[in-house]
Amino acid sequence: MIAAHLPALVVLLPLFGALLAALSRNGAAAFVVAIAATFASAVIAAMLLVEVQSAGAVSYHMGGWAPELGIEYRIDAVNAPILLLVSVMGVAALVYARVSVLAEMIPERIAWYYTMMLVCLTGLLGMAATGDAFNVFVFLEISSLSTYTLIALGRDRRALVAAYQYLIVGTIGATFYVIGVGLLYLSTGTLNLGLIVERLPDVTSPRALIAAEAFIVVGIALKLALFPLHAWLPNAYAYAPSSASALLASTATKVAVYLLARYLFGVFGIHRSVGQVSIADALMVLSIAAMVAASLAAIFQNDIKRLLAFSSVAQIGYITLGLAIANEAGMTGAFLHIFNHALMKGAAFMAVGAILLSTGSCKLDELAGIGRTMPLSAGALTVAGLALIGVPGTSGFVSKWYLVLGAFDAGMPWLAILIVASSVLAVLYVGRILEVVWFREPCQRSLEASEAPAGVLVPTLALAALTIYFGLSASFPVSLASNAATALLGARP
Amino acid sequence: MLIDPLIASATRIVTVFLMVAGLYVVIARGNMIKKLVGLSLFQSSVYLLFILPGKIIGGTAPILDSRFPVYAHPLPHVLILTAIVVGIGTLALGLALVVRTREAFGTIEEDEIIAREGAKASRDGEGA
Question: Most B CBs within 10 Å: which of A116, A138, A175, as the mutation test of the B interface?
């Protein structure tokens, strides 16, 4: 009985949890509700993944209304792993938040903070689960509005400005998306993604479709911080509370990337061109620009959270590059990097948050030698950093390996060279952190620091351990990623 | 009968004008409130974009009854009802952030905020 409703429950449990957390007005109670709801969501996501792998795509009609009257939730090989990723990262971020928010927030706001985290997770899970173009917009705005609130709850007053700027850019992005959906709806008369694909060949006006694709791609690109639309991201991640940075860096942009992949491959087809420009070529150029320019920017940052934020923009470039390559190996690399980057960047932001919690600073020039007094946090940061470079033995190596394979398969060996060259830039920015943290004489602040409490260390180390585990034994994520890649490439209209 | 072609094209022009004007205000103005006004204009244009094709002259609300054979397409209206709610949420949150920014910085001009933060950062740099 309940099993039939899993696709709805995975999204609704965090939403009901949010309601309870808001009503509780009590930080501890809200935490219990939040962790229970998110954990249940993660379990359901895992069950859905198993079901999708054994029985194929699951279609759920919301409220019993069949498409095209009703909203369809469609879980397939592409989005089932995304649901699992988002809910598991949600659990990790919530566990981490229990201790870290106590230091970052006045007590009255803690329950609201958990509420917002749950609403954000609802939005992200909904975006991934739904098969309805307009429903995506609603969930996109649910997650965005709660994200702005999460960022604004940061300790620094600049968090307010960062949240405001993200609100402006995010709303423009969402509105672009909904304009595109409107044009698609005018052309096809339906909002169901599956039905849109069926009816696209009958559309008489190609111009409306091109406009729709342009609006949708640019709108989603704003949300996933595709270079050069990434300007909102560094400040947002730098000034948000640590647990929010970890959650957003590992989930929000990933769901947007999934959505881009869904539209490019499942709806429009990656090889369509707008005027003289092919979408795949444009995406490839922007991805390479992101890999190089954002890595260069990361090298010159003093604030470690900002450094990691620029690194995120660069790493998203690798993911979109895999989509632009658009062959089996490249797409596998892209999806693999969605999972792997979520784990490594989650670990990195949590480790920096732990250091910030103990020392009150996350500026490189104030943290010389912090590795001697906080070996575990600094160790997790090191592991995550090595994975960002793509050192063999970490998960980052596996995803870059598939990207390079994809570049060769596509007959573009120069692209493989660019991937390696941009990894050298990652060596520089990660190297700066490692040099300061491990090899410098400890400064006064570092000597007075002590290791972060267990409550923040456990999730940090768990993610760092997973980063290494999936680097050594990659068969599970690789099989998920290659299933997703096959499904998307097979769906090409 | 669908809507008069002349009115339809006039409405389309208004839609595009609102879209571009709203976006321009967001980009060109540094005042945080004015930016939000532009953002609202921009969002309103989308409401028109959806509503226009659903309108039928003489159409009623969608009531399934033999007395009302012609009715307007309800779906765009419902969608836009949702979009309006989203727009209100965004505007309310944006205004709340402006209030908090004014409390924290004493100004709502982005140039002045950046100038103050820049001055503060360089003071911190000298102190360190």
Answer: A175
